[in-house]
Specification:
335 residues; alpha/beta; D-Maltodextrin-Binding Protein, domain 2; 2 domains; globular; binds fe (iii) ion
Length: 335
């Protein structure tokens, strides 16, 4: 009799853990080095295995699109609200009912339709040469279009989604013609041709090829960890602008559950976990980004750059105005 109960209990426990151990499959534009420790931790805590493939944003989206209903992906994890918006707009993601995510992720950093949620925040801000610029000379993104910055500005190429999102958010804030004038002013102020990446733009500022640039802070953080003596510093623009809602341009890396997920509940649980507590620190700190969850403090190296006010406009505008943004930059001859 006893033995019978033990066998039944074992079979039940076995089948329950099998049921709860249905794997979650993630398509990730974030690299393995960043996500594997996180997923290992998730498996350790929950017993749920996470399978993933990594790739660049474009090819991952194309794969998801091509696979349609046959995809094995439960979760899409990618960078930039522009890419997340595009995935949602193409119907590749499904809306989630999640009080937990509503609580963990501030409203301007998630899809109003609940198809995707920011998981880390990247701030695109001003970096300046400390020997050539006083912080009191700096104020806003818009001011970098003024004649006083002629021959003093470096920019990364407009081909990068980060700048497309920045300009899209300026369109959301100012409208198209005022933004066109701002971007035209930036182009007129360029000291040298545009750079292929943020790090090269910061190095040019450090070398005195130009005095100011616009970059994501984690590139600044990585470069300064290698070369702490470089004469460059971060400035938080648009902090004290009267009469309109503005602030530092922020963007996100984030995730959503796919339309054709085989394990949507498992996918949702994983995203909820990624937006919470310790996972937030692991996720944000490893790339010197900011946690999206306001309850979680940034890494000390990141916190050292000071606090700042976000632009409160929803980051989905970076996606919905992307085409408009690219066309505007093209007209301004921003290469
Ligand atoms: Fe980046």
């Amino acid at each position: 009799m006893n033995r019978f109960f033990i066998v039944v209990a074992l079979v039940l426990t076995g089948s329950m853990s099998l049921a709860s151990a249905q794997p979650v499959v993630v398509y990730s534009a974030r690299n393995e080095q960043l996500i594997k420790p996180l997923f290992d931790q998730y498996t350790k805590e929950t017993g749920v295995p996470v399978q993933f493939i990594t790739g660049s944003e474009g090819p991952l989206l194309a794969r998801l699109r091509a696979e349609g209903a046959n995809t094995s992906a439960d979760v899409l994890l990618t960078v930039d609200a522009g890419n997340l918006w595009q995935a949602a707009n193409e119907g590749l993601l499904r809306p989630l009912q999640s009080p937990s995510l509503q609580a963990s992720v501030p409203a301007h950093l998630r899809d109003p339709g609940n198809s995707w949620f920011g998981l880390s925040v990247r701030a695109r801000t001003i970096v300046y040469n400390t020997a050539r610029v006083k912080p009191t000379e700096l104020s806003t993104y818009e001011d970098l279009a003024a004649p006083k910055w002629h021959g003093r500005l470096c920019l990364r190429t407009s081909k990068k989604v980060y700048n497309q999102s920045l300009v899209a958010m300026l369109i959301a804030e100012h409208g198209e013609s005022a933004t066109q004038a701002i971007v035209q002013g930036w182009v007129n102020n360029l000291a040298v041709p545009v750079f292929a990446d943020d790090t090269k733009a910061i190095e040019a500022v450090a070398q005195g090829q130009c005095d100011v640039t616009l970059v994501n802070t984690y590139y600044f953080g990585r470069l300064l960890q290698k070369s702490p003596q470089l004469p460059v510093a971060i400035f938080w623009p648009n902090q004290n602008v009267a009469g309109r809602q503005t602030g530092v341009h922020v963007n996100v890396s984030g995730a959503g559950v796919t339309r054709h997920a085989k394990n949507p509940a498992g996918g949702q649980k994983l995203i909820e976990w990624l937006a919470s507590g310790k996972a937030q620190s692991l996720f944000a700190d490893s790339n010197l980004e900011y946690p999206v969850n306001p309850q979680v403090a940034p890494a000390p190296a990141v916190a050292a750059w000071g606090t700042f006010k976000h632009n409160p406009i929803n980051v989905k505008e970076a996606g919905s105005r992307q085409v408009q943004s690219v066309q505007l930059m093209d007209r301004a001859r921003y290469k």
